[in-house]
Amino acid sequence: MKNNLPRRHFLKNAGILTAGLSLVRFPVLGKSLWQHQTPWHNIPLNKNIDKNWLESLYERGEPGRYLKSRNELKYIGMPAGGLHTGTVYVGGDGRLWLWQVYNETMESVHEGISPQTVDWNDGTRLQKIRSRDGAAYVEPVIADNMRVLEQGFAISVKHGEKIWIKELKESDWDEIVFEPSYPTALVRYSSKDFPVEVLLKIYTPYIPLDAANSSLPATILRVEVKNTMDVTLDIALTGWLENGANKLSALPGKGKKRCRTFAKEGHTALFFDYLTQDPILQTATDAGSMCLSFHGDYATVNTSLTPWPVTAVCFEKEDTAVAELDAPQNQVGGITIKKQIAAGTSLQADFSIAWHFNNPHPKLKQLVKEAAGGYYYGARFKDALAVGEYLASHFRQLTTATELWQQTWNDASLPHWLLERTFINIGTLATANTYRFADGRFWAWEGVGACAGTCTHVWQYAQAMARIFPELERELRERVDLGAGFEADTGAIIFRAENENRPAIDGQAGTILRFYREHQMSANHSFLKRNWPRIKKATQFLLAQDKNGDGMTDTPMENTLDAVWDGEISWIVGLCIAAACAAQAMAEELGDHAFAATCANYVQKGSRNMETQLFNGEYFIHKPDPVKGRKNLGSYNTCHIDQVYGQSWAFQVGLPRILAKEKTVSALRALWKYNFTMDVGPYIKTHTGGRPYAVAGEGGMIMNTNPLNEPKPYGENVTWQLGYFHECMTGFEHQVAAHMMAEGLVDESLVLTRVIHDRYHPSKRNPFNEIECSDHYARAMASYGTFINACGFQYHGPRGYIGFAPRLQPENFKCAFTAAEGWGSYQQVKNTNGQEHTLQVLFGKLKLQEIQMEQIKGVSASSVKVMLNGVTVPARYAIAEGNIHISLKKETQIQTAGKLEIIIV
Q1: Which residues belong to any copy of the Glycosyl-hydrolase family 116 N-terminal domain (predicted)?
Q2: Which of 16, 330, 439, 728 is deepest in the core (most CB within 10 A)?
Q3: Shared-domain flag, residues 749 and 866
Q4: Which of 95, 155, 169 is CA-nearest to residue 339?
Q5: 261 plus 306 within the same structural domain
Q6: 393 and 493 together in one domain
């Protein structure tokens, strides 16, 4: 996290210690009025949660549907392009907007989806809020205000002499329904005065475990027109696109916009570029090309649609193969298809839009040397036409796999809203927040255009990318954490690689845990073996930060709250214990028994001392440095959101418990009691200085609260970072929700996740953009951890191990799963005879040797039968502590379309 514009003055100017406010509203604590005035803890213990509403959170429900008639469309912006190819949004009415593909997104130049500054009243005064301070939360960007390029569709319907024409835009239809299911969206259009119904499906090729085909700079738009009349209709459908080449930089008299036609069987394309001899314009960040394609036969083209906007003339005119216009003029080209459709039948048309802008911002090239070579997509394709041709050649394969994943994810027993919220944040990878350079290196901001360097102490919260595109995380571990950001002599991992010069203690620990996760999401031991010497060195550096040898790190070092805290801090101590536990597991797998013993000793001491010294009987605290005391900023006796984060991480990778369940659950209940509220309004009004990531009337979990009402609870010398303590940041909230789910606090987990979901309801702001220090903040991908724990999912690829222990409806449960080499669907059902479990591989393959599931209540489990595609597989089983562990007598592979069935009676 980073907040430095100008962050040193942020809290002072925000009135953190506003004398007048404190004098009027709060009693004086201590002898000095100015020094000790502290707002009382005012989060209600009674959460006033409606029982019926709570019960509804468990229901399967219906997929999200957002309607024009409910004024729910204007803020919607779902990422609709490939990974790391810039931000292209699809709006609530199906039109594409934002077009943040021009490489202008850059810290201090163009931060966020819009570099706006807005006014926000925090309850005490009016503040100026910028992108990294939550501007898009206070005043969400409206799609109609950011339509950089002309793009859209129009439909002409003719019957006899009667002609109807409508564009696919909000103002033309009685009702529009937006149905999101990332990575796809379906938009339905209807009007009582129009003789057809229209559906528009928007997505980019998106295939888990296939990062290359999920990284195309393109959007697919599938239009379906249904004849609802009892007569045959003549249909004409036109899709259009503006030439976006040099959209920002083009100058009158310096060049010409050009549109050319290309056609072959099954593919008709309009290719847009910009002709110029000016070397500055040739290398501008927006220099490049675009392509509008129709993937089918019998289309007509128009390289310069006029008149504009669209009229009946546009459906009839076919012009020459090349059009050129001077820079000041908009150049819009269109592709039209025509067909007669009989009563009750439909027309389906597949279009795509591709872009190619391979000139990274000059400042980005200064931040990371690999940027000089351009982007991953730029190395694969010479221009946007090549992207369109690749789509045309692989269209069926790409669309089928994408739709199969979307169907698999949603064909589940979990509530639709929970599936949506836990997966939605992986859309961050398809925004200008992330880059993949020509040589394959992954690099990212924390939030769009803010805080450089794929920061370890932020990205380590994110659980989604490792499960959906594990190759990206493995590449990041090897190329950056053990490469550009690694100090070979000390083992320190620089937390922003070449964009910093020091490690962060939580980033170091979280990255060691990520090494274990990336090993688990590998097919074999090769990743771990080739990286073990440096992983071991990084762990040795971590262990060395425990100066007094009690298993609790006590070296002051940077952390994710942008500060250096003194003493022994529960959330950092626990995270380091979990990292040591992960290192122990890796060492044991590789036969490094001496180092495994070293780690085990650290874990044992650390866990014991954390529980005895940092647990206050209700929650875990921050023990001050014995010399400095509470001189500097810290959480001390307050209730901190990450206090048991190490145990939370342990659940994500199937480690043994590092903290006793009783104390851990007590800490989580304390967070619920003292930090969670269904309305943050009263709290943020009295505890000022934080950024507005949740506002009055909205629920959330506050970062750090002072239940004991201590004076100076956060130390003697308060610094600007104190503002973080009074905020609601979704990445941290998702981490707690995931942990609550794992510990069986299912009500609390669902409520916490749902209030986040409701904060981002499209009637209020963009549901696809969880904000923290700029837009599409990476930490929010912690939400996937809640899905992992709701499924009770565990996986270890090299061992051939998979396990499930659902926390919701275990008697009839179904979910998607991803593994090292394949993905598919898992289902378990309790029936009159016992319980049945099914693993079906739908993409790739799954290697198995061990399987574990929970014994469902009421099932005796006296026999276990395993079958692969109907053939019995020899296996042994054992039952312990309610878990059924199955060992296959030999390694078994389930291929695509294969099914493994387990029958327990």
Answers
A1: 77-397
A2: 728
A3: no
A4: 155
A5: yes
A6: no
> Which residue among 378, 402, 426 closes a domain?
402
Please state the domain count of the chain. Answer: 3
Q: Determine the structural domain holding residue 323 and report its residue range.
A: 150-402
DSSP letter for each residue of 706-768:
-TT--SSTT-SS--TTHHHHT---HHHHHHHHHHHHHTT-HHHHHHHHHHHHHHT-TTTS-TT
Q: Measured in Å, how far apart are the chain's first and last C-alpha atoms?
A: 51
Contact 246, 283 (CB under 8 A): no
Q: Is residue 96 part of a domain?
A: no
Question: 388 and 303 in one domain?
Answer: yes
Do residues 76 and 433 make contact, with C-beta atoms less than 8 angstroms apart?
Answer: no
Residue 560 shares a structural domain with residue 660: yes
Query: Do both 348 and 421 map to the same domain?
Result: no
Residue 55 lies in a domain: no
Looking at 374, 402, 430, the residue that finishes a domain is: 402
Counting every residue written for the chain, the total comes to 905
Helices (H) and strands (E) in the chain, counts: 25, 39
| Whether 508 and 611 share a structural domain | yes
Q: Are 786 and 753 in contact (CB under 8 A)?
A: yes
Decide: 904 and 861 in contact? Cβ < 8 Å: yes
Residue type at 663 in one-letter notation: K
In the chain (905 residues long), the average pLDDT of successive 10-residue segments reads 38 29 28 48 96 98 97 98 98 98 95 94 88 95 96 94 94 97 97 95 98 98 95 95 96 95 95 97 98 95 76 62 87 94 96 98 97 98 98 98 98 98 98 98 98 98 98 98 98 98 98 98 98 98 97 97 97 98 98 98 98 98 97 97 98 98 98 98 93 96 97 92 96 98 98 98 98 97 98 98 98 98 98 96 98 95 96 96 96 98 97
Dist CA 563 CA 574 (whole Å): 18
What CATH number is attached to the domain comprising 812? 2.60.40.1180
Q: How far, in Å, CA of 185 to CA of 674, rounded?
A: 39
Q: Is residue 90 domain-resident?
A: no
The angle formed by the CA atoms of residues 387, 393 and 394, to the nearest 5 degrees, is 90
Residues in Cβ contact with 566 at an 8 Å cutoff, skipping those fewer than 6 apart: 556, 624, 625, 628, 631, 632, 634
Domain contains 222: yes
Indicate whether 799 and 888 sit together in one domain: yes
